[in-house]
Amino acid sequence: MLWMGFVFLMMLVNIAGMVFWIFMIIDAAKRKYKTENDQLLWILVVVLTGWIGALIYYFMVKRKEDKLNEDNK
Description:
By secondary structure, the protein is an all-alpha fold. The protein has helices at 2-30, 36-71. The protein has one domain. It contains 2 helices and no strands. The radius of gyration is 15 Å and the shape is elongated.
């Protein structure tokens, strides 16, 4: 019976990772970059590496950009 809880937890983690991955793909597609090549590169990184690429994108681009926008207000 304990394994059912583990399976359920892993399903929730997997679904959360997939939702996060989709949101990062959308953000990478909508975000303005200095060059078009940067946009294509980040979209490819996120799409081809899954949730790990989404985490890399989040910390290297999205979080940094959001922090800069917050400081400018």
